From TrEMBL:
Superkingdom of the organism of origin: Bacteria
Compositional bias segments (type: Basic and acidic residues): 190-200
Region (Disordered): 184-207
Official protein name in the record: AbrB family transcriptional regulator
Organism: Bifidobacterium panos
Pfam entry (one): LRV
Amino acid sequence: MSEEIDETQAQQSFEPLTATYEHLRHSADSAELSEFARRPLPDRADQAAFSRATALLEAVAGNAHTPVEDRVFLAESMPFPNILVKLAEDSEPSVRKAVAANEDDKNWLVGRLTKDPVPEVRDTALHNKRTSWKMRLEGAQNPEVDAQTLAFLGTLGTEIESDAPAVLSSMVRRAVALNPNTAPETLSKLADDPSAEVRHAVAKRQQ
């Protein structure tokens, strides 16, 4: 009997959340959605209220009627994967760019954004410290990545992240050296790289 009561209570607490979630997901009221996006989160100590608020923010984040500036705000400030996944699929590049720059991203999510069709989003994701070395290497090999981002990737393991795995960072810098978009000044720096493989790649380019 007590189990039935507990189940009924659980349903009663769940159903209002579901109803509110669906309301926010389909709402066309930009003012309401904006207010919800900017509403301070409850204290984490109140776990039920906190979980409810973050769940409802997922609905707000996925609603195209939420103003762009509020979606960007959520993309910049939220650390929660369920919200960031929604925003990473946003049709507005500025929102995806904000997700790409968010250092609370999971590496698989920011890795997905290194493949974004918009160069600015891709490049921002490649600058994010959460990006995996596999994604960094693929970025360094991509002939569509701009010279500025290649210059950044060419400093990994030397000027930036000096404690990075030597083999992996060397592979990224070597790929930068071989990328046709790499600027002459970046190649000049890489010509003095501590890794012989990187120096050889530069020499190969200069032949």
